[in-house]
Amino acid sequence: MDPDNSSEDLLYDNATESPVEARSSWDETALLGLQISLSAVLAVVTLATVLSNAFVITTIFLTRKLHTPANFLIGSLAVTDLLVSILVMPISIVYTVSKTWSFGQIMCDIWLSSDITFCTASILHLCVIALDRYWAITDALEYSKRRTMRRAGVMIGVVWVISISISMPPLFWRQAKAHEELTDCMVNTDQISYTLYSTFGAFYVPTVLLVILYGRIYVAARSRIFKSPASRGKRFTTAQLIQNSAGSSLCSINSSTAQEGSLQPGGGSGGSPIFVNNVKVKLADSVLERKRLCAARERKATKTLGIILGAFIVCWLPFFVGTLVMAICKDCWFDPVLFDVFTWLGYLNSLINPVIYTAFNDEFKQAFHKLIKFKRCY
């Protein structure tokens, strides 16, 4: 009886332990699969960000037509977003997937400083691009004289000075914890004064500035569009243009006489006035067509800037709201996974910027297509 009972107990123990072991094994396999999938997705996003910004930089560099102060600012934005994708996002992939910082204190300081500096610079670049666009559309004549590469370089320099001044303060108080073993790497939100300073300097103030600038650009662009004859529906027919031009009294000639006069070998007194009027008609049509093209360009540029502004707010607003809430409300709790989503949504803006510029800018698209075909543009 005893051996039988012991064997039954053994079988019972195995039956009860097997599901636990199987479940534990299944959980580890599922977790590993999730980590691999997440790493692959984030790696694809990072690679796409690198390639898209590299293509924008290369396109501007190789295309002389794009060597303008406005495109210089766009190129600088692409350089900043490229730095985000090379120096910030790869390390963030490892940290996001593993949930543990294993690179040490010094690397943590470098990574955090790079993250804050480059992301802030990317945001501020959008401000200077909008500011350049605002001056160009509201004070076109005067600003065209001041719109130089040197001025664009000064604007970019100001962007980097502000970005570095926002990223430096955390380095001073983090040194006090350098001797401790580091398991996580994040900005200390206990310093409420720095959190307010950094979030307002890097996001809230630039966002208000962008909204104001975009609103004024939109109003100015619509005003210019509605002032053009084409947008008011002022379509001039050939007859109206001839009647309003010099020598219109000669257009009362009947059709047969006009045809004969226009076909005279020497032009003569019968064909010359009609020829002059036809030239004036063509010139007037050319002016109207040019105004229509300018109006279309204004609408497209304004729409592009609006899309950039919308994408920027959607990408960065959750992260900065979460950061500010955690600093102000100590009892509030944020799921670390949700905060990782907000962080990568902000990084995604560095991928969206070059895509928008190449998709909605005709000059960029043409140059981009030539670059793909390995043709050097001049």
TrEMBL record:
It is a multi-pass membrane protein. GO terms for cellular component: plasma membrane; synapse. It is found in: Cell membrane. Keywords: Cell membrane, Disulfide bond, G-protein coupled receptor, Glycoprotein, Membrane, Receptor, Transducer, Transmembrane, Transmembrane helix. The keyword Cell membrane applies. Residues 52-357 form the G-protein coupled receptors family 1 profile domain. InterPro entries: 5HT1D_rcpt, 5HT_rcpt, GPCR_Rhodpsn, GPCR_Rhodpsn_7TM. Gene3D superfamilies: Rhodopsin 7-helix transmembrane proteins. GO terms for molecular function: G protein-coupled serotonin receptor activity. It comes from the Eukaryota. GO terms for biological process: adenylate cyclase-activating adrenergic receptor signaling pathway; chemical synaptic transmission; positive regulation of MAPK cascade; regulation of behavior; regulation of locomotion; smooth muscle contraction; vasoconstriction. The chain crosses the membrane at residues 36-62, 74-98, 110-131, 152-172, 192-214, 307-329, 341-360. SMART domains: 7TM_GPCR_Srsx. This is 5-hydroxytryptamine receptor 1D. It comes from Megalops atlanticus.
